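Q: I'm writing a short explainer about Mitochondrial thiamine pyrophosphate carrier 1 for a general audience and would like to include a description of its predicted shape. Could you first generate the structure from this sequence?
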Amino acid sequence: MSDRSAGIPAITGQIDYSKAWHVFPDYLQPYRTTLLAYGASFASTTIGFPMDTVKTRMQTHKNFTSYFDCVRKTYKVEGIRGFFRGIWAPLISTSMAKSLSVGIFTSVKPTAYRAIYGNDTTIGDTHPVLKNLPVCMASGFISGGGVSLFACPFEFTKVYAQISRLVQSKSMKDLPQHLQTNHQEVVSPSTTKTFRQIVRHEGFRGLYTGYKYHFLRDSISSGVYYSIYESLKWTMNSIQESYQIGSPQLSILLAGGLSGILSWTFVFPFDTTKSLIQKDVVTNILRKEQGLSPLPPKERKLQKFERKLYRGLGISVTRSFMVNMVFFSVYEFAMSHIA
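A: Of course. Here's the predicted structure. Afterward I'll give you a sentence or two in plain language.
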């Protein structure tokens, strides 16, 4: 694609077929981007999931004094498996959502460019990064918003699995003493059972608990995410080429990691508010399962500068830095070697 039709190429440039290790058959060519993004996301999600568990528990429970305290108590009570509870839903859904996001973004970007600039001939001298930013923001917003429709139910089941043992243990204190004895074993449900429990108690709409904040989080963060990644990578590549230093792989790693940190920091209050809304529903579902009356509904509104909304931010941005370095390095490597 020429620069005039799309500005900076979406995420990665054109492949050099002379360097290709493998060429997809013709019937898979239309899905190449999606398939490679899925594989890269599968690897990055697995690596980052334990930190995501700690982040969710810090967001939804005040009884952890620090990240180390959360890790220590989780390991003491649940072992290593405690950090991977609910991983199967995001391994499938997050990887699929990421691949869909990349696919939608790369498909929408040329159209967004034409919609924003049309036949305007005055933008030829505009810096490529500045010209690319509104296109990335619009394409990323559409990509994130579209994917959120698919991702929200799966993310809710992930949150359910990550906090269910904590919520259930806490609600057991409201049971009579003789019933507490009969409920000592707290069992985390499978992903399938979690889906059924949510639908049974909350209906199909219950799977979209907190969707407003999920939509805002994914739409805004995707716009910021892709804008920062493409801008930083293009800028660093230009500097490296001018001074003949570094390598393209370094720009991919740094741009990927920093795009994850900055986009996640920007929308973290949305994520915390969503998690707290979902925690309230999980609490009442588990109370009903134990024969307890549900708690009165709480009004959860986004208070952007409340300190509590940033609990778990540190480990979250660390996870995001690692996950996105892995994702973009694997994805761009695959895009350069698998045609």
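A: For your explainer, you could say: Residues 1-6 have pLDDT under 50 and may be disordered.
Q: Perfect, that's easy to follow.
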